[in-house]
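Side project, low priority. Logging it here so it doesn't get lost.
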Amino acid sequence: GLSLWLVPSAEQIGLIQSVLPKRPSQSSDHDLSPLSYPTIIPHITLVSIPNTDSEPGTPEWDALLDAIPTNQRSIRADFQSLVVDDHYFRSVLIDIRRTGDLVDLQSQIVTTLGRSGLKHSAPRFPHMSLCYITNEDATERERTAQMLRNTSLVTENQDTQSMSLRCGAVSLTGFDGEEIWAVKCEGPVETWKAHDRKVVLFSNR
C-alpha cells in the first residue's frame, strides 16, 4: 500500500532508532521469525491507502501527494504511554497525545483523499511503533515492553498521562514532526521506500 508518514527531525530519528528494540540473540522457546524486529524508521502514519502497488507518477501517488497541506508548520507529537498491541505493525508502540494540530492535519489529508474516491485508513491514530513482531512470536511483545520499562528506557507518568524515552544522555518526551513522507509499503519492511519527494515542514522555531 501507500502511506503518508509524519517523521521526526533527522536528529530525533537517530536518537529514537538508537534505542529501538533489537532482535535478541536467542529466544528461550523457539527460533524467531525473520520478519520479527526489522529495522524501522520512527513515524506516525497519517493515512494509508491499502491494496495498491502503484508507482510514483500514477494517479494514486499523485492523489496522495496532493493531499499534503501546503504551508504546513511542524507539529509536536507528545508521547503518552507504552502499549502492547496484537497487530504486526503495532506490536509495541507509543500512543501519541491526540492534539488538535495532529487531528487537523490528518483531517485535511483525509478530506482531500476522500474527494479522489480512494479508500484509506489509519488504525490507532496517532501512534509511533517501536518494533514489528509476528504473531508466531507474540510472547516477545510483552517481553520487549517489559524490557523497555525495566531498563528505564521508557518512563511513564500515569498522573500526567505522559512518558519519556531515554536515548543515551537525552530524554525525549515526544518528537517534532518536521517532514511528511510518501512511502510505498510493499514487501519486507526494510525494502519500503520513501518517495523522493519529502515535504519539509516549516519550523515553528
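Brief comment: The radius of gyration is 17 Å.
Revisit when time allows.
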